[in-house]
What we know:
The chain has 2 domains: 8-24 and 113-166, no CATH class; 28-91, no CATH class. The protein starts with 7 loop residues before the first helix and ends in a 5-residue tail after the last strand. Helices cover 29% and strands 20% of the residues. Strands 1-5-6-7 form a 4-stranded mixed sheet, covered by helices on one side. Strands 2-3-4 form a 3-stranded parallel sheet, sandwiched between helices. By secondary structure, the chain is of the alpha/beta class.
Amino acid sequence: MSDAIINKVSRSQLISIDLEDFKTEGPRIFIDVSQWLEDGFLLREKPFRAILKNHDWAKYKKHHIALDCAADVVLPAWATLLITTYLTPYAATINLGSLMDLEKKLFSNTISSLDLNIFKNKPLMIKGCSDPSIPEAAYIQLVQRLQTVARSLFYGEACSSVPLWKANKKE
């Protein structure tokens, strides 16, 4: 009988998935529309258009943009659309909402385009205790996608995992 320690985790088919690996590269920035409003709350079309026309949009090149108004004002829909027309030639992504809303969108795009073939009929571990900036919605979307192909899903670490789901055995 051998006293050798056997690492069962390294020998298993278990595939570990870390959402940190799915994080979209590039700087993120929140653009507050209220900076271009008179006194921070009044939108007059002509001065608004002039300010936007003279703004340096190139500084947002390859940035992921969260666009919203921090002031408690009602903006016409065309205001953010007009800003978007200036950002589009430069920004990598433009999303209406907070930086967290932007992060949700970026993860959603990545998870939606994920090739699931490598996970087919495999036991999968979704790594826990990751970067706190990863939205919980990303984990939910990942589970929904993986459940269509996986043999089983776990959450956490191999040494202390929580079973989430197991496919029914086909007879």
